[in-house]
């Protein structure tokens, strides 16, 4: 699928006020779509946001031979995979394409794909995925540069696996492999993120036997077949974090509904330390800022339940508006702060050193509008958040990055009172066509 880019314009300086409902989480929907390959019955995912990464996942499912389509706001997946080769161009567009390999191995004994892509935020090797799959009987075949071919002609079997780092992606891959493998798998050192628990709940609803989701040790008893089910993915804690940071940066009062505050508690706690008022309910939070913002001091990301790496650039955008100093270190990815250059263009006092972004006090003149380029998904959203607090007009180019994880971000912010819109390039129909030989001849005759 070709991603069409465009630009978002922001006229900053206006506070945000109102209520926003948090959609389903992209980071849950993608592994759930991969899990649908294991199901003999139809799968329906409820109220899925229309993201470019979701469209890529549907392309992978269709390439594998399944029916995968939208039905209103829901996605329906039906049929078993018949093709072990995933579409190369589609697979290369997003990191989550690696998740589709384990189900294909389990069902067809083989998986072939391009090496997965995604945001350029640092090294994201798949060695943990491959090491775990090898313990379960998969072999990596020589496929040439940029390709990945895995085979398990004898099928996958259970194993006792210890991850040396609690990788979310590797935990999801091995969970998907183990749920239909022969025997029992024990996965130690597993990630504990809410999206892991969501995937385990879905697989159990389909007939799987998974214990320990939400802890560092998972026990999976393999099952020959899984049925389908109707399932509502959990809400997007990163989307909620984005809007919470936007309220802190621009000022005003924003109520976020449909997402338990516990899912993004570190973000809310840091915003409180910076001077925001946060009210919490069972599945709602209200973030308000009417006075000054203060520096957050030194902040670190970490594995769940620590501060999510995806939230780091968003918090940094709010830190730009603080009167004191802050620093934020991402211990997961070494190039997480590609948005730093854009922060500088807005007039922010930032310094990047390795994994650490230092943020100085807000200049007396404040931030000002600028021409910006989204470097990646979360960095692009962070530039939009920062532009909301800047005086004057800003433009954020390369919005295709933002579209990977946010459905209509600018529309949500506009509904909260932000002066923001989107401009798209002219349609392909406007591209000048190559004239035919007859047209060239007629034009030549007319000139004579």
TrEMBL record:
The keyword Hydrolase does not apply. Residues 12-413 form the Enolpyruvate transferase domain. The modification 2-(S-cysteinyl)pyruvic acid O-phosphothioketal is found at residue 119. Its EC number is 2.5.1.7. It comes from the Bacteria. The active site is at residue 119. It is an enzyme of class 2 (transferase). SUPFAM superfamilies: EPT/RTPC-like. This is UDP-N-acetylglucosamine 1-carboxyvinyltransferase. It holds the Pfam family EPSP_synthase. Keywords: Cell cycle, Cell division, Cell shape, Cell wall biogenesis/degradation, Cytoplasm, Peptidoglycan synthesis, Pyruvate, Transferase. Pathway: Cell wall biogenesis; peptidoglycan biosynthesis. One of its GO terms (biological process) is peptidoglycan biosynthetic process. GO terms for cellular component: cytoplasm. It catalyses: phosphoenolpyruvate + UDP-N-acetyl-alpha-D-glucosamine = UDP-N-acetyl-3-O-(1-carboxyvinyl)-alpha-D-glucosamine + phosphate. Transmembrane segments: none annotated. The gene is murAA. UDP-N-acetyl-alpha-D-glucosamine binds at residues 95, 124-128, 310, 332. Phosphoenolpyruvate binds at residues 26-27. One of its GO terms (molecular function) is UDP-N-acetylglucosamine 1-carboxyvinyltransferase activity. Belongs to the EPSP synthase family. MurA subfamily. Its main location: cytoplasm. It is found in: Cytoplasm.
């Amino acid at each position: 699928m070709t991603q069409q880019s465009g630009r978002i314009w922001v006229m900053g300086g206006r506070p945000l006020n109102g209520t926003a409902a948090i959609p389903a989480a992209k980071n849950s929907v993608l592994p759930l779509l991969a899990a649908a390959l294991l199901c003999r019955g139809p799968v329906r995912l409820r109220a899925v946001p229309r993201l470019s990464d979701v469209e890529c996942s549907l392309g992978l499912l269709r390439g594998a031979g399944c029916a995968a389509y939208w039905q209103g706001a829901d996605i329906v997946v039906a049929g078993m995979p018949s093709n072990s080769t995933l579409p190369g161009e589609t697979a290369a567009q997003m990191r989550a394409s690696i998740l589709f390999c384990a189900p294909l191995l389990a069902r067809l004994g083989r998986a072939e794909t391009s090496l997965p892509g995604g945001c350029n935020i640092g090294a994201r090797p798949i060695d943990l995925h491959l090491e775990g799959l090898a313990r379960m009987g998969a072999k990596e075949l020589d496929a040439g540069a940029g390709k990945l071919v895995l085979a398990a002609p004898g099928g996958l079997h259970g194993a006792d696996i210890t991850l040396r780092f609690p990788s979310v992606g590797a935990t999801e891959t091995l969970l998907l492999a183990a749920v239909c493998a022969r025997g029992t798998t024990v996965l130690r050192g597993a990630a504990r993120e809410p999206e892991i628990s969501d995937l385990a709940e879905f697989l159990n609803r389909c007939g799987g036997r998974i214990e320990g989701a939400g802890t560092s040790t998972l026990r999976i008893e393999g099952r020959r077949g899984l049925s389908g089910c109707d399932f509502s993915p959990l809400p997007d804690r990163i989307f909620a974090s984005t809007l919470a940071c936007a309220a802190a940066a621009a000022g005003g009062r924003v109520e976020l509904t449909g997402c338990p505050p516990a899912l993004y508690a570190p973000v809310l706690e840091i915003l409180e330390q910076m001077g925001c008022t946060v009210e919490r309910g069972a599945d709602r939070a209200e973030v308000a800022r009417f006075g000054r913002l203060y520096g957050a001091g030194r902040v670190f990301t970490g594995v769940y339940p620590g501060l999510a790496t995806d939230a780091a650039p968003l918090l940094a955008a709010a830190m730009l508006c603080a009167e004191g100093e802050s620093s934020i270190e991402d211990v997961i990815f070494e190039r997480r702060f590609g948005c730093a250059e854009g922060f500088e263009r807005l007039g922010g006092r930032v310094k990047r050193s390795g994994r650490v972004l230092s943020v100085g006090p807000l200049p007396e003149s404040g931030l000002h509008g600028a021409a910006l380029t989204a470097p990646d998904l979360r960095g692009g959203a962070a530039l939009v958040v920062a532009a909301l607090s800047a005086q004057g007009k800003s433009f954020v180019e390369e919005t295709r990055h933002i579209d990977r994880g946010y459905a209509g971000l600018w529309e949500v912010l506009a509904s909260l009172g932000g002066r923001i819109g989107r401009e798209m390039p002219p349609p392909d129909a406007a591209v000048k066509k190559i004239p035919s030989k007859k047209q060239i001849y007629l034009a030549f005759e007319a000139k004579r």
